[in-house]
Protein backbone atom coordinates (compact mmCIF):
# COMPACT_ATOMS: atom_id res chain seq x y z
CA UNK A 1 0.00 0.00 0.00
CA UNK A 2 1.03 3.61 -0.41
CA UNK A 3 1.79 5.64 2.70
CA UNK A 4 1.54 9.44 2.25
CA UNK A 5 4.74 10.65 3.84
CA UNK A 6 4.65 14.26 2.68
CA UNK A 7 2.67 16.77 0.69
CA UNK A 8 -0.43 16.73 2.83
CA UNK A 9 -2.90 19.37 1.76
CA UNK A 10 -4.41 21.77 4.28
CA UNK A 11 -7.06 20.00 6.40
CA UNK A 12 -10.65 21.08 5.76
CA UNK A 13 -12.61 23.14 8.25
CA UNK A 14 -13.69 21.45 11.44
CA UNK A 15 -16.58 18.99 10.88
CA UNK A 16 -19.88 20.47 12.02
CA UNK A 17 -21.84 17.29 12.70
CA UNK A 18 -21.43 13.65 13.64
CA UNK A 19 -21.78 12.42 10.06
CA UNK A 20 -18.89 14.60 8.94
CA UNK A 21 -16.82 13.55 11.94
CA UNK A 22 -17.40 9.85 11.30
CA UNK A 23 -16.58 10.25 7.61
CA UNK A 24 -13.35 12.00 8.50
CA UNK A 25 -12.16 9.54 11.11
CA UNK A 26 -13.33 6.27 9.60
CA UNK A 27 -10.38 6.41 7.22
CA UNK A 28 -8.05 5.69 10.11
CA UNK A 29 -9.05 2.06 9.77
CA UNK A 30 -7.39 1.82 6.38
CA UNK A 31 -4.32 3.86 7.28
CA UNK A 32 -3.42 3.01 10.87
CA UNK A 33 -4.49 -0.61 10.46
CA UNK A 34 -2.61 -1.15 7.22
CA UNK A 35 1.12 -1.05 6.87
CA UNK A 36 3.40 -3.17 4.86
CA UNK A 37 5.60 -2.29 7.81
CA UNK A 38 4.05 -5.05 9.85
CA UNK A 39 5.77 -7.55 7.59
CA UNK A 40 8.60 -7.34 10.13
CA UNK A 41 6.31 -8.52 12.91
CA UNK A 42 4.67 -11.12 10.69
CA UNK A 43 8.01 -12.53 9.63
CA UNK A 44 9.06 -12.89 13.24
CA UNK A 45 5.83 -14.77 14.06
CA UNK A 46 5.13 -12.31 16.90
CA UNK A 47 1.96 -10.38 17.52
CA UNK A 48 0.95 -7.31 19.49
CA UNK A 49 -1.00 -8.02 22.71
CA UNK A 50 -4.75 -8.35 22.24
CA UNK A 51 -7.52 -7.29 24.64
CA UNK A 52 -7.96 -9.71 27.54
CA UNK A 53 -11.22 -11.61 28.13
CA UNK A 54 -12.00 -9.46 31.17
CA UNK A 55 -11.75 -6.25 29.16
CA UNK A 56 -12.85 -7.22 25.66
CA UNK A 57 -16.44 -6.41 24.87
CA UNK A 58 -16.77 -3.89 27.68
CA UNK A 59 -16.73 -0.11 27.57
CA UNK A 60 -17.55 0.53 31.20
CA UNK A 61 -20.57 2.27 32.73
CA UNK A 62 -21.72 5.77 31.95
CA UNK A 63 -19.28 8.17 33.58
CA UNK A 64 -20.01 11.58 35.02
CA UNK A 65 -16.99 13.41 36.32
CA UNK A 66 -14.68 16.39 35.95
CA UNK A 67 -13.84 18.26 32.79
CA UNK A 68 -11.16 20.69 31.63
CA UNK A 69 -11.04 23.78 29.47
CA UNK A 70 -9.64 23.50 25.96
CA UNK A 71 -5.87 23.01 25.79
CA UNK A 72 -4.06 21.00 23.13
CA UNK A 73 -2.16 17.84 24.15
CA UNK A 74 1.64 17.84 24.35
CA UNK A 75 2.47 14.30 25.48
CA UNK A 76 0.88 11.03 26.57
CA UNK A 77 2.16 8.60 29.20
CA UNK A 78 0.73 5.13 29.87
CA UNK A 79 2.73 3.55 32.74
CA UNK A 80 1.18 0.06 32.48
CA UNK A 81 2.56 -0.51 28.97
CA UNK A 82 5.64 1.71 29.07
CA UNK A 83 4.39 4.42 26.70
CA UNK A 84 5.84 7.91 26.92
CA UNK A 85 5.38 9.90 23.73
CA UNK A 86 5.01 13.41 22.48
CA UNK A 87 1.69 14.02 20.75
CA UNK A 88 1.52 15.31 17.19
CA UNK A 89 -1.47 17.31 15.96
CA UNK A 90 -2.85 15.94 12.68
CA UNK A 91 -5.97 16.51 10.63
CA UNK A 92 -7.28 14.69 7.57
CA UNK A 93 -5.99 13.88 4.09
CA UNK A 94 -7.64 15.10 0.89
CA UNK A 95 -9.68 11.89 0.73
CA UNK A 96 -11.07 12.40 4.24
CA UNK A 97 -8.88 9.90 6.09
CA UNK A 98 -7.10 10.80 9.30
CA UNK A 99 -3.48 11.73 8.78
CA UNK A 100 -1.03 9.43 10.52
CA UNK A 101 2.55 9.93 11.70
CA UNK A 102 5.28 9.11 9.19
CA UNK A 103 6.35 5.47 9.41
CA UNK A 104 9.86 6.49 8.49
CA UNK A 105 10.43 9.14 11.15
CA UNK A 106 7.50 9.26 13.61
CA UNK A 107 6.39 5.69 14.33
CA UNK A 108 7.26 6.25 18.00
CA UNK A 109 4.91 9.26 18.24
CA UNK A 110 1.19 9.29 18.97
CA UNK A 111 -1.07 11.78 17.19
CA UNK A 112 -4.15 13.67 18.33
CA UNK A 113 -6.93 14.10 15.77
CA UNK A 114 -7.19 17.87 15.91
CA UNK A 115 -10.84 17.97 14.87
CA UNK A 116 -11.84 16.13 18.03
CA UNK A 117 -12.10 17.87 21.42
CA UNK A 118 -8.91 18.30 23.41
CA UNK A 119 -8.29 15.73 26.18
CA UNK A 120 -10.40 16.61 29.21
CA UNK A 121 -13.12 18.50 27.37
CA UNK A 122 -16.63 17.07 27.30
CA UNK A 123 -16.79 14.74 24.31
CA UNK A 124 -14.49 12.17 22.73
CA UNK A 125 -10.84 13.13 22.24
CA UNK A 126 -9.09 10.83 19.75
CA UNK A 127 -5.41 9.85 19.85
CA UNK A 128 -4.07 7.26 17.41
CA UNK A 129 -0.73 5.64 16.73
CA UNK A 130 1.00 2.87 14.81
CA UNK A 131 1.27 -0.63 16.21
CA UNK A 132 4.54 -1.30 14.41
CA UNK A 133 6.91 0.15 11.83
CA UNK A 134 9.41 -0.91 9.20
CA UNK A 135 11.86 -1.80 11.96
CA UNK A 136 9.70 -3.24 14.72
CA UNK A 137 7.15 -2.30 17.42
CA UNK A 138 5.78 1.26 17.36
CA UNK A 139 4.24 3.54 19.99
CA UNK A 140 0.97 1.61 20.52
CA UNK A 141 2.33 -1.91 20.09
CA UNK A 142 1.12 -2.95 23.57
CA UNK A 143 -2.16 -1.00 23.57
CA UNK A 144 -4.21 -4.20 23.64
CA UNK A 145 -2.54 -5.20 26.92
CA UNK A 146 -4.26 -2.41 28.87
CA UNK A 147 -6.73 -3.43 31.55
CA UNK A 148 -9.71 -1.78 33.19
CA UNK A 149 -8.54 0.90 35.63
CA UNK A 150 -5.11 1.48 34.03
CA UNK A 151 -4.01 5.13 34.02
CA UNK A 152 -3.40 7.34 31.00
CA UNK A 153 -1.80 10.76 31.58
CA UNK A 154 -2.09 13.43 28.90
CA UNK A 155 -0.04 16.58 29.46
CA UNK A 156 -1.63 19.70 27.99
CA UNK A 157 -0.15 22.92 26.68
CA UNK A 158 -1.40 24.86 29.73
CA UNK A 159 0.78 22.58 31.93
CA UNK A 160 -2.20 20.69 33.31
CA UNK A 161 -2.03 16.89 33.16
CA UNK A 162 -5.35 15.20 32.44
CA UNK A 163 -5.54 11.84 34.23
CA UNK A 164 -7.75 9.20 32.58
CA UNK A 165 -8.70 5.68 33.64
CA UNK A 166 -9.39 2.86 31.19
CA UNK A 167 -13.05 1.81 31.18
CA UNK A 168 -12.90 -0.56 28.22
CA UNK A 169 -10.61 -2.26 25.71
CA UNK A 170 -12.18 -3.63 22.57
CA UNK A 171 -11.18 -5.14 19.25
CA UNK A 172 -13.31 -4.56 16.15
CA UNK A 173 -13.12 -6.09 12.69
CA UNK A 174 -12.46 -3.37 10.14
CA UNK A 175 -15.30 -4.77 8.09
CA UNK A 176 -17.73 -4.08 10.93
CA UNK A 177 -16.21 -1.07 12.66
CA UNK A 178 -18.87 0.82 14.73
CA UNK A 179 -17.64 4.32 13.92
CA UNK A 180 -20.75 6.02 15.28
CA UNK A 181 -20.36 4.30 18.66
CA UNK A 182 -16.70 5.17 18.96
CA UNK A 183 -16.76 8.76 17.73
CA UNK A 184 -20.16 9.90 18.95
CA UNK A 185 -19.50 12.61 21.59
CA UNK A 186 -20.47 11.34 25.07
CA UNK A 187 -21.67 13.67 27.82
CA UNK A 188 -18.44 13.30 29.80
CA UNK A 189 -14.72 13.87 29.18
CA UNK A 190 -13.70 10.78 27.22
CA UNK A 191 -10.52 9.60 25.53
CA UNK A 192 -10.24 7.09 22.69
CA UNK A 193 -6.89 5.48 21.82
CA UNK A 194 -6.80 3.64 18.50
CA UNK A 195 -4.34 1.38 16.71
CA UNK A 196 -4.52 -1.69 14.51
CA UNK A 197 -4.88 -5.21 15.91
CA UNK A 198 -6.06 -8.74 15.39
CA UNK A 199 -4.77 -11.01 12.65
CA UNK A 200 -2.44 -9.74 9.95
CA UNK A 201 -3.33 -10.50 6.34
CA UNK A 202 -0.05 -10.87 4.48
CA UNK A 203 -1.87 -10.93 1.14
CA UNK A 204 -3.22 -7.40 1.53
CA UNK A 205 -0.63 -5.99 3.95
CA UNK A 206 -3.34 -5.03 6.46
CA UNK A 207 -4.39 -5.99 9.94
CA UNK A 208 -7.97 -7.21 9.92
CA UNK A 209 -9.04 -5.44 13.11
CA UNK A 210 -8.55 -2.31 15.16
CA UNK A 211 -7.90 -2.07 18.91
CA UNK A 212 -9.76 0.73 20.69
CA UNK A 213 -9.21 1.81 24.28
CA UNK A 214 -12.00 3.75 26.01
CA UNK A 215 -11.04 5.98 28.95
CA UNK A 216 -12.62 8.70 31.07
CA UNK A 217 -11.18 11.70 32.89
CA UNK A 218 -10.95 11.17 36.65
CA UNK A 219 -8.85 14.12 37.77
CA UNK A 220 -6.16 16.59 36.76
CA UNK A 221 -2.95 17.95 38.23
CA UNK A 222 -0.42 20.69 37.60
Please provide a written account of the structure:
With 222 residues, this protein is mainly β. It has a single domain (36-221), classed as Sortase, Chain: A (Beta Barrel), CATH 2.40.260.10. It has four helices and eight strands. It has helices at 18-25, 28-31, 39-43, 179-183; strands spanning 73-78, 83-90, 110-113, 123-128, 151-156, 161-173, 189-201, 206-221. Strands 1-2-3-4-7-8-6-5 form an eight-stranded mixed beta barrel. A hairpin with a 4-residue loop joins strand 5 and strand 6 (161-173). The longest helix is centred in the N-terminal third of the chain and has 8 residues, at 18-25. The chain is globular, with a radius of gyration of 16 Å.
Summary keywords:
eight-stranded mixed beta barrel; single chain; Sortase, Chain: A; 222 residues; mainly beta
What is the element layout, followed by pairings?
Layout lengths: L17 H8 L2 H4 L7 H5 L29 E6 L4 E8 L19 E4 L9 E6 L22 E6 L4 E13 L5 H5 L5 E13 L4 E16 L1
Parallel strand pairs: 2-3, 4-7
Antiparallel strand pairs: 1-2, 1-5, 3-4, 5-6, 6-8, 7-8
Q: Class by helix and strand content?
A: mainly beta
CATH domain fold name: Sortase, Chain: A
**Main sheet makeup:** 8 strands, mixed, barrel
Q: Enumerate the strands of the largest sheet in spatial order, edge to edge or round the barrel.
A: 1-2-3-4-7-8-6-5
CATH top level assignment: Mainly Beta
Count of alpha/pi helices: 4
Give the CATH H-level superfamily.
Answer: Sortase
Tell me the fraction of residues in β-strands, as a range: 25-35%
Cα gyration radius (Å)? 16 Å
Task: Tell me the total number of β-strands.
Answer: 8
Element-by-element helix/strand order = HHHEEEEEEHEE
CA(first)-CA(last) distance? 43 Å
Which whole number gives the mean pLDDT? 82
Give the tally of structural domains: 1
Amino acid sequence: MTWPQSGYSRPPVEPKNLRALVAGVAGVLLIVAGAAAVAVTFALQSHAPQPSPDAAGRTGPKVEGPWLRRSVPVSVTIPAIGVKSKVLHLGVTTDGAIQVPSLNTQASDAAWYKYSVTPGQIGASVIEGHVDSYTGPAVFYRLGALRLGDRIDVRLADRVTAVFRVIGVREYLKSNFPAATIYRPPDYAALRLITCGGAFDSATGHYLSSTVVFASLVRSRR
